[in-house]
Design goal:
Layout: E1 2-12, E2 28-37, E3 43-49, H1 58-70, H2 84-91, H3 101-122, H4 126-134, E4 143-148, H5 158-170, E5 176-179, H6 185-198, E6 206-209, H7 217-227, E7 234-236, H8 244-253, E8 258-260, H9 267-276, E9 285-286, H10 295-308, H11 323-332, E10 337-340, E11 356-357, E12 360-361, H12 375-381
Bound molecules: magnesium ion.
Magnesium ion (MG) binds near residues 209, 236, 237 and 262.
């Protein structure tokens, strides 16, 4: 069994939305396809599509990771299927430890395509393979989900925010996450109150993402004081991803849940977060994103590491709302899947055979990751 072709192209994710850290006008992602000759089983094509927020990785893929993968003589595992671990090891040959950065996203999107092929060869959805391999055959029967939205828009106002959230509750979502932190705390509170007005005033149904807006512990305490009365589900990414001292000061000060980790890209970075970040295993959420962190091979080890450190799987809530994260949450029995819920956004929604109701999604039965049954992504991927 061997790889016979790898293609990549950058895709525009340009969108008028923004958060406290970046706008998305120039945002891109890598779309990849890997063609595998599986002998008598046939020829299969697996697809990958980058997570959102870190740009396409065309150069790294073309110069280093695709050639190493393609040079691999054999990708068959001991069970006769495709073993993504063999591909992962080939891609990471001659890469020094540390300095994960964009490299982790380049490997991650290719790893995604390898898992897509592996599941297609077996004729099964990816969540089932992950469940068998990494979760002793356990999986969610219904996948807990929450809707992400509530970004800033050039012509946005509080009524538009309320309207957007109403659209998500109408789609069957119970919990919603919105963006704050672009203005001052008074502006944040008016956004939170607008959102709560659509959520029966129930703070446990609302999470707030401030995208690293706090520079000092004083900033985090002011924020915590302002947000505390709302009883939010969680506050996300209070400060710089590597500022564990700031994070620990906040978890010492604020009783409510904190979520973070979407901008940490490896097992060793996650280890530092768990050891030095002051996170509490009974409430805080770890949002490391498998597609940005060297893919499922590394992410399965991250889940094991977290469990060993007494952060149960329920506290793992991967970032971004891409389809790989959906399979990870379903197959590894993780806490919840984030869904980019705006219907017109390219990464928005789930596979066509999945239904969302009462804050849960059904299991997709589409073989592989299911890109072929996600019309917006498939429109792009089929051009590869
Ligand atoms: Mg976030």
């Amino acid at each position: 069994m061997r790889i016979i072709e790898i293609r990549e192209k950058p895709v525009s994710l340009s969108d008028p939305m923004s958060n406290a850290a970046i706008n998305f006008q120039e945002m891109t992602a890598s779309a990849v396809a890997i063609v595998v000759d599986a002998g008598h089983k046939g020829t299969f094509t697996g697809y990958g599509f980058s997570s959102v927020g870190r740009y396409a990785q065309s150069g790294l893929i073309a110069e280093r990771f695709a050639p190493r993968l393609k040079a691999l003589e054999e990708v068959e595992g001991a069970d006769g299927g495709l073993d993504p671990v063999r591909g992962w090891a080939a891609m990471m040959a001659n890469e020094k430890p540390g300095g994960d950065g964009d490299r982790a996203g380049a490997v991650g999107v290719l790893d995604m395509a390898l898992w897509d092929v592996a599941a297609k060869i077996e004729g099964t959805p990816l969540w089932r393979i992950l469940s068998e391999r990494y979760n002793e055959d356990r999986h969610h029967d219904l996948v807990p989900v929450y809707a992400t939205g509530g970004h800033y828009y050039p012509d946005g106002d509080l009524e538009a925010l309320r309207e957007e959230i109403r659209g998500y509750t109408d789609q069957g979502y119970e919990r919603i996450k919105i963006k704050c932190g672009q203005g001052d705390l008074a502006d944040d509170c008016s956004r939170i109150e607008a959102a709560l007005s659509v959520l029966d005033g129930d703070g446990s149904r609302l999470a707030v993402d401030v995208n690293c807006m706090c520079s000092t512990s004083g900033d985090t305490q002011e924020m915590a004081d302002a947000y505390s009365p709302y009883g939010l589900s969680w506050i996300e990414e209070p400060g710089h991803p590597h500022d564990f001292e700031l994070l620990k000061a906040l978890t010492d000060y604020y009783e409510g849940a904190i979520a973070t980790g979407e901008n940490l890209f490896s097992m060793s970075e996650t280890y530092n977060l768990l050891i030095y970040g002051g996170l509490r295993g009974d409430r805080d959420l770890i949002q490391v994103d498998p597609a940005l962190s060297y893919g499922m091979v590394e992410y399965a080890n991250i889940v094991k590491l977290s469990e060993a450190g007494e952060w149960p799987r329920s506290q793992m809530v991967p970032h971004a709302g891409h389809l790989l994260a959906y399979h990870a949450v379903a197959g590894l029995s993780l806490g919840a899947h984030e869904i980019a819920a705006r219907p017109d956004f390219i990464l928005g929604g789930l596979q066509e055979d999945v239904r969302v109701a009462d804050g849960h999604a059904t299991l997709s039965q589409t073989p592989g990751v299911g890109f072929e049954s996600h019309p917006k992504l498939w429109k792009v991927l089929q051009t590869l």
